[in-house]
Amino acid sequence: MSIDLRTPDVADLAGVVGELATWQSDRAGLQLHPGDVGWYSTRGADATAAALRTWSRDGRLLAMGLLDGPSLLRLAVAPDVADDDGLADRIAADLADPRGVMGAGSASVEARGARRLSAVLAEHGWRPGELWTPFRRDLSAPVGDLPVRVETVDADRAAVWAAIHWSAFRGTEPSSDELRRVVDRWRTMAEGPLSAAARTVVALDRDGDGMAVATVWSAGPGRPGLIEPMGVHRDHRGHGYGTGVSVAAAAVLREMGASSAVVCAESSNVGAVATYAAAGFTAGPQVADLERAG
């Protein structure tokens, strides 16, 4: 049977992401998670659907990719087709065709759960790229006392989240226009079709000021939940707020029925690696993106 490549419509977004959720398992490696798509939805439902690619055979969804920019494809495959030759060959061919998924030139693919595809791409000249460290915290037992005070972020506190997030990832204080744009993106996500799976928390200091933030994403009861993103205000690093908000994020995921809390950090980001380890997450073997030279 032939394998069909398509870009889903907005009306299909919740359905295909729901199918992606069923592929998440503690027995498998960390691959594209519904939370990755949910976080991308800060750009809006139309842009999110347009960034997805799906591969199906006889009406059954087999693989899904998120174009996180023009030259990065983040992939997940259904667990029972991780070693499927036909699927691997078709995805590899689509990646090689400038009219398929990505344009010609340099590109990166996250294919952690797609064993056969990874081998096929290596045969086609793709090479290991950036290293990532996957982390997992088992949630079969209660998380315990939280090391920091946390509150849930709602629309009224979106500006608090936005200021911390901007500082954590940009290293500066946002202008009023920049802050407004980031708030608008958070609200776009919170009002979008994937928002039911998300919770956002902020860690507070003794005075009630926000120090760190994290958003968590459920894949459904009994499945791993994702932390994406987590950040600490640049002026308050080194005081345990990142560890605290990561523990709190795990606790929220347990309340949502998750079997574990997962996150993947750049191995070169020693601060993030240390933070998740301090928060009780166990590091798995490092995994590399696959890169194609330009």
TrEMBL record:
PROSITE patterns tied to this protein: GNAT
Superkingdom of this protein's organism: Bacteria
Domain N-acetyltransferase per the UniProt entry, residue ranges: 148-294
GO molecular function terms noted in the UniProt entry: acyltransferase activity, transferring groups other than amino-acyl groups
Protein name: N-acetyltransferase domain-containing protein
Organism: Actinotalea fermentans
